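Async update (no meeting this week)

Hi team, since we skipped the sync, here's where things stand on the single-chain job. The sequence we agreed to prioritize is pasted below, unchanged from the tracker. I ran it this morning and attached the output directly underneath so nobody has to dig for it. Comments welcome in thread, and please keep replies under the output.
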Amino acid sequence: MRSKQPIVAATALTILIGFYNIAQAQEKNLPDKILLEPSFKSVFEVPELLSELSLSFERSKGKIRPVRLKKGLANAVNRRKFRWLPRAARRQLRRLGFAVIRQPFPPAEFHLLYISNQYDGIPSFVTSDSALHLTHLLFDHALQKVEEELMIPALTQLLAGLHQQALLLEKQVPKQLSKELERLLLKLEIARWLLEGEKVNVASSRRAQVEQEVARITEASGPDKNPLELAYPHFLVRGHYTKNEQLKRYFRAHLFITQAGTKDPQEAALLLGLATSHKKSLRILAWLEAFERALVGPPSSRSVLSLQAKAQQAFGDSPAWKDLAGHDNWLGDCQKKEASPLGCSITLLPRCWPADNDLLVMTTDDHFRWMPDPLDLLSALGSKQAYKLLGPAIQKWPELAERLNKAIAAVKLGDIGDSHSVGGRWLLSLRWLLLPYEKGYASFQLSDAWANHGMVSAAASWAELRRDTILYVQPPIRHVWAEGGDDEQVPPEEAGYVEPVPELYRELAGVLKSFEQALLAFSKEGLVDKAKAIEKTRAIQLLRDGQTLLGFLEKMAEKELSGKRLTRDEYRKLGTIGDWFERIVAGPGIIKLDPVPVIADVYHCVVHFPGEERTEKKVLLAATGPLDVIVIAFRLGKRIVLARGAVSSFYHFEGAAPMTDQEWRKLLKEKKAPAQPDWAKPIIQLAPRKRRTGD
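Output:
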């Protein structure tokens, strides 16, 4: 009889091997058993994602023949299509060459008006507003996708890695650092809970405080004075982050780690030590910071990575953990009352400071002007009309003129303005709507009324930019104390006209291209395991489709300015531009289109009343409203033709707190929205038709 011992031994060995393999698999998901020492010498370098641009402020020369409409629009060949225009609009159209009209039931989206033009046989006027709105839609859509597929997983891994390192350190930390590590663990556990939910392992000693802070942050409400110095109202989820629970969690967690900073030198040393002792965390942290800088602008606060050189000087290349205790002065000027422009608070990730913040801060004062005006920004970008409208404000505070002139000069010299970020390039592109037009441009572009219209378009796009980047931007907080054509044969209903600002379309295409480059550079670093290839996603293809459309608009605008005739095919493309817009933004399953009106808080002011235990908080809100309709006259060969297009509307007002898009749209729907500033109001407002008896 054969012995059973070898069989039993083999079976036991197989079981042991199985347990070993399971243990090995599990080991990959466990924190490092060995806590490595900090390495302040190993700076992780990220290359500059976007190169510097040279900017021009000179428009192309124009050769567009002037258009003069006769009384009753008699010389417009398709005037019967515009019988719906009221008498006041006809007068404006004849006098100025254009009229902006607020209809009782405005189109819900830009492309819908252009598709309506195709069905109604009305030539389309492709406005700069439609190009800017397309840029907003594609930018916001691509940003949301990269957040969902790359940034959220990367931030999850970063916080988990730092938390695991901190837990290992907790077992061997010197007593001198125990309080600082406890605060750090509290912040990391709050951040992880916000991002991942209550499944995160939280020490029983900290659980009650973590739950309390998570509840306050989720409700966006809590005391002004709190241990973590959080501004709870800022955690109101807004922008595209309201679309799903994952984005809501990301919004709160990201905002928390940029707000919950420290001024304690030993806590800062510990945080930097954790980041530099875990290579994966260091790499993720460096790339997140670099990408967000390329997205919005330079940091508005000190991040831990910016302190590596100081730490190396104070502690050496690779200090032991115990060596981080007792160094209370290593941060230098950050501990002084008069700290650097980045401030004293040190955060894991910084929020960003876009160039428009500098312009808004320049024109405010503790005594004379607490809040800026969007006209300040428009003036700095080149609008003489905006400067003129600020006359009453300058009379009240004459120094405002000097500050505005400095801002205008600084933008032209490149001292203010950031072409190293996608948002900065977007902002600077708006100057082409604001710089004066000279003879040779379309007749409708030469009046003060058109200058006002350009201000509305630019301000509306600025509001969309600030709304799209709301999570990453730190708003200023002031504490007060030759081609032949056959256009003669083109039927008017098959024609179209592009607003002739080729430089704007070129730079908007550059905005989308630079965003694409930053996304690809960020995604190719392999920060997230099994991440989708971003370059193969629909979001990247949409950015490229947008560049193609904007390139076409640039070419058409250049031909119009040079007096060249468009081909029959080019006219056909303009006549069906609504289809092109729709294929990009409203194709099946591509972009879920929200209503047009959006809102952003762009400036915060906290007024402290001497001798009283109270403060008053104010927020400057910038918003877009319903779409308006614009009608212009243009030449089609020897004929004069009327065309219709869609344009943005703009609002700004002071509020007590930030506001979501949904809350803003409700105010508009219920007709409770504050009035538009006079310069932003449409020229003509149509009232709903009264029903006749018997209708």
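Quick observations from my side:
The longest helix spans residues 128-170.
Residues 71-139+356-685 form one domain.
Reply here if anything looks off.
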